[in-house]
Amino acid sequence: MKKIITSTILVLSIVSQVQAKVISEDIEFANHFYVDSIQSCKAMDKNYTVTFNKKQTVKKVKKLVGYDWPADWEMNSSSMIVRDKGITVPMTMLMSATHNAIANDNHDNVIIAKNLLMDLAKGNTLYDSIGYNEVQKKPMCYAGGDINAPCWYHQYAFARDVFSNYMITALWLKDELNEQEFKTVNLYIKKMYKKFIKPVESKIEEQGFYQMANGGTGILAYASWVNDKKLAAKQITHRFKEIDKLFYQDGYINNNSFRGYRGQWYHSYGLDSALGFVYVAQLWGAEVPTKILNKLVKASEVTNLAITDWDKFKSRKYAGANHNAIEDPENARKRTHERAFGLDILMKIVTNVELVNDSEYLSRRKQFMHQGVDELVGFNPHCIN
Questions:
Q1: How many other CB atoms are there within 10 angstroms of residue 197's CB atom?
Q2: Which of 99, 100, 76, 101 is nearest to 87 (CA)?
Q3: Does residue 13 surpass a pLDDT of 50?
């Protein structure tokens, strides 16, 4: 009888490590999403990233207002290549300049940030992009094995995540908005959320872990915006389950790590996204199950393996089908993903694993660091206090 009780306790303990449910009482929103209070940060100061002191910054951000992303995507993007600068760069510029305005208590620049936030809302920016429910009816990316086939999911996902970053910017400015400004921004946020993010609140992806935690980070931003701690707790619990499903015990990531000659690239991309989500969840008071943390540690170690021994990294066999694997070495990306420029910081904070030296990554990420925000997570990890 004693053995039975002991075994039962052990099983329940193991289950709880994975299925520990986060409750609303655990949650305390950080006022500025990724920190309680935005402070001046060398990685985002006026000598490194953009500010509203330059008229060119305002001009470039304004180009995003009402931007025809579907037409841009249709003309310039394919399954293998996404030309997204038309929407991602203006948004990261808005975020960086807003961050600097708040950090430096520059009232004039805060007003500029608010006006741009309002303009984007009034212009229903990106609302005409394909939504989640519509994209389910479209062909998969790489249809028929064609790298040049249209990828409708890219049109959706990039619109969703640029909007998610808009919400994070709105959170930074929320205390500065008057009643009418708040009403305008709030109306836009709720309209966009319903079309692009709400449908994935309870969705666990069958394959792959990609930017903004497959939409989970956007849900956290919305939960904070509407002060819904139950939604935040539910989403954190849900996304932990997704991480547990898609991250394997040995640290490889379903789909990401097995995309042929771009496996390393997408592995680091997915890990950065997951670590950003987990960092925010921990900051807000959630306890991360031991099994999840162990998998993230292993995934960090696999990131280092790919840097030090790419052939050994790639030798790991995958039993499932990967329709988006890149098998032509001419299209290889044998490096850590340059957009994941906060990966080294997040690895250290969440998993205590140091990223080994990757000179190509350190060189290539500079252009994205100058944009100021790691768009895969919605903030600049180098500015964590």
A1: 25
A2: 76
A3: no
What is the per-residue pLDDT across 150-175, written as a single tens digit (0 to 9) for each? 999 999 999 999 999 999 999 999 99
Nearest to 218 by CA among 379, 24, 42, 48: 379
Which pLDDT score, from 0 to 100, does residue 315 have?
Answer: 96
- DSSP reduced 3-state for 3: helix
> The domain 18-30+42-383 is classified under which CATH number: 1.10.10, 1.50.10, 3.40.50, 1.10.150?
1.50.10
What's the CA gap between 196 and 128, in Å, rounded?
Answer: 11
DSSP state of 354: P
Helix or strand (DSSP H, E) at 105: none
Measured at the CA of 185, the angle between CA 183 and CA 191, to 5 degrees, comes to 100
Tokens (6 digits) for 142: 């790489």
Put residue 214 in one of left, alpha, beta given phi > 0 → left and psi -120 to 50 → alpha. Answer: left
User: Please, which pLDDT band fits residue 36 given cuts at 50, 70 and 90?
Assistant: very high
Joined together, the tokens standing for residue 162 give 């640029």
In this predicted model, what pLDDT tens digit does every residue of 43-67 receive, in sequence order? 887 767 789 998 999 999 999 999 9
Contact 183, 117 (CB under 8 A): no
Residue 191: strand, helix, or coil: helix
Residue 160's identity, in one-letter code, is R
Task: Report the C-alpha gap between 160 and 146 in whole angstroms.
Answer: 25
